C-alpha cells in the first residue's frame, strides 16, 4: 500500500459502543477512512445506495438483527463485487467460519483480537490477501484445501 492510498472501510455491527469505538480507532490512523457505519445489513445496503465511493473493505458482524452477516455479505458482494468482506465475530465455531467463507468473506477476525490486528486484517484484504485470526485459521486452511489451485 502506498502512503497516498487510503483504505476505505465500512463498519457494520449492531453493538453501538463497539462499532463507534472501532470507527474512532480506525479514524485515528491516516491510512484508513471510515466511509460509513451501520447497525445491520439492511441499513448498510441502504447506505451503499446513497454513497459515491464504495468501501474497499466491509467489516461485517455475523449476529445482527434485521439482516445477519451471512445475508449481508452475500448481498453486498453480489451488488458490489469490487469490495471485500472481513467477517468480525465473537463466534469461532467451524459452521460460522465456513458459512462466511461460502458467502464470500476473504477474512475472519475474532472480536477478542487485539485492535492492531483489525488494522492488519483490513490491510491484508485490501492488498489482495486473506486474513484469519489464530482461533479460526485452521478452519480456513481446511476450507481452502477443497479448492485446488
Automatic annotation (TrEMBL):
Transmembrane segments: none
Entry annotated with the keyword Phosphoprotein: yes
Organism, scientific name: Chryseobacterium taihuense
PROSITE patterns: RESPONSE_REGULATORY (PS50110)
Modified residues (4-aspartylphosphate): 61
Pfam families reported for this sequence: Response_reg (PF00072)
Keyword flag Transmembrane helix: no
Lineage per the UniProt record: Bacteria, Pseudomonadati, Bacteroidota, Flavobacteriia, Flavobacteriales
Entry keyword set: Phosphoprotein
Protein name according to UniProt: Response regulator receiver domain-containing protein
Annotated Response regulatory domain residues: 8-126
